[in-house]
Amino acid sequence: MSVEPFNKLVKLAARAFYDDITTKGDNQPKTGRSDNRGIAVVVLDALTRRQWVREEDLAKDLKLHSKQLRRTLRFFEEEKLITRDHRRETAKGAKIFSAAVAATADGQHPTKEGEEKIKLHTHSYCCLDYAQIYDVVRYRMHRMKKKLKDELDEKNTVQEYICPNCAKRYTALDALRLISMDDEYFHCESCNGELVAESDKLAAQEGGDGDDNARKRRREKLRDMLDKLEVQLKPLVEQLTRVKDLPVPEFGTLQAWEARASAAARSNGDSSGNDPSRSSQGLGGTPMPFLGDTKVEVAFSGVEGKGEGIKSEAESTSLKVLPPWMIKQGMNLTKEQRGEIKQEAKMDGSSVAVEFSDDKKSTESDDKKNLQDEYVKAYYAALLKKQQELEEAAKKQQELSNTSLFDGLSGTSSGRQVGMKSKRDEDEGDDVEWEEAPVAGNSNENYKVDLNVEADATAEAEAEVEDDDDVDWEEG
Amino acid sequence: MFFHIVLERNMQLHPRHFGRNLRENLVSKLMKDVEGTCSGRHGFVVAITGIENIGKGLIRDGTGFVTFPVKYQCVVFRPFKGEILEAVVTMVNKMGFFAEAGPVQIFVSNHLIPDDMEFQSGDMPNYTTSDGSVKIQKDSEVRLKIIGTRVDATEIFCIGTIKDDFLGVINDPATA
Ligand SMILES: [Zn+2]
What we know:
The structure holds 2 protein chains of 2 kinds. By secondary structure, chain A is mainly α. Chain A is 54% helix and 6% strand. Chain A has 3 domains: 4-135, Orthogonal Bundle (Arc Repressor Mutant, subunit A), CATH 1.10.10; 145-232, Zinc/RING finger domain, C3HC4 (zinc finger) (Herpes Virus-1), CATH 3.30.40; 287-475, no CATH class. Chain A has 18 helices and 6 strands. In chain A, strands 1-3-2 form a 3-stranded antiparallel β-sheet, sandwiched between helices. In chain A, strands 5-4-6 form a 3-stranded antiparallel β-sheet, with no helix packed on it. In chain A, a hairpin with a 6-residue loop joins strand 4 (160-162) and strand 5 (169-171). In chain A, helix 12 (295-318) packs parallel to helix 15 (367-400) and helix 14 packs parallel to helix 16 (409-426). The longest helix of chain A has 34 residues, at 367-400. By secondary structure, chain B is mainly beta. In chain B, 7% of the residues lie in helices and 53% in strands. Chain B has 1 helix and 14 strands, in the order E-H-E-E-E-E-E-E-E-E-E-E-E-E-E. Chain B is elongated. Chain A: This is HTH TFE/IIEalpha-type domain-containing protein.
């Protein structure tokens, strides 16, 4: 994602369209001092060198009064060149932003809560919206050309007529009243004079006579303008075509960007689990959905993701739905193989996993949580290993099952295994579905694992339980 | 553009129409009164398609006339700026030409006629291309775009253009 071509586009557009923009009101006298033309270009240029920036900081950098800068930025917001975000935050929240900006390695974590007074200030942030800028500039060019061309073709213009005697004006909309039965001209309502068409709108006003001349001159002027437009905006057009197929740089919303920046900062530096001060407090109380990308989840999803990959692999090998014409009497198949069981159970498993990680996030992070995390990691590692073993075996069994000796137990038990996993994730031994599996599983035990409670349980113990399961399965 | 809408009108009925045919009399009078009229707001009433509801009649003091509030469904035609219409040319002169699309009158001024068409006066004034292949005269059918409307309380008048892609003569009576 290269920003450079887009920055060039912004700079060209700034010079082409916003060079003489002044943000002073029209009523104020434009003395030498208050004339701030060119400020728009300066601000846009500065923004091309930044991503999200706090407006106060920008004002400081540009040595502008923040009010003046805000007026310019508001103008750009209306022009759809930038996006802005305002939020009330504590000084601490501002610091988090600073941390994100610096994207420093580590340390510098915001101070503990309660250390400062909670005092909310509204801070404004702004950022260039490249995708929109591209569209805005293109649209502007299109409108400019269309206006001149329409004017040149005299499209959509209502013809005006003027009475040479009394200078009364009419438009084509009056035509019905102006026609006379005697000749083919329009006649003035008041003096019955012959009306002449008036044909200049852009060019200087001419009298009634010589309207052909005036029209010609006007057309020349328009064509001239169109030519000039083509020539002078050529660099901009070229830049637009250059940028056309490039991926547009996106910074996302302020929150997303901040979260990403700070996540990058953290992955650079400290990798020691989750930072309590960060995940528990949010940003001075503002909701920060993207802080969901905490360390806990990353480590978690690493294990989980691998497990899922294997799981789905196992499903695709061992639990293929047989087409009805392949199912014969005497075949002992699971419901899944008959295609009777929907994906629900599996879906359930994965969605619950997500919920679970959410729960994790929301819990107050403390030592206990770290302990739990450790436990979870170990537990899942063990589980994963177990599953891999199981699936290997299942595959073998599946190969065997092509013969008529197959009694369907292998398919079921591996299916059950998948289900059990989802059950564990669920944290609440709501196992009805899986207990009702059609072929009575050879293992009647039902493992309930409550991760929140069993922080003291060891991974080894759990692995042993798994071994039992394994043995059972092999018996079948 | 055509719309199917519900309108309301207070109908005054002469006492001689009272009787078992009152309703029929009321409806036929409504059709006579309303169809073909134009209101600036709704456009031209093309046809009444149904009666929604006839309210209670109110006898007028002194005259014996009875006023019925009648709700009726009707098709209206309302021209809009930017709309493409097909119209029949009714008059051609040096300033342009007039055409009719149903009840609507449209004026196309000569500067909105393509530049390659020249005005030819005579018995049958017309606009013709230099090679004579296209001719606009009375009774020609043209496709035009409305670029402006004048809406009065009881009248709608439009101005149009044929100076755009796919606009112009669609059927020439001379060759047809
Ligand atoms: Zn006059």
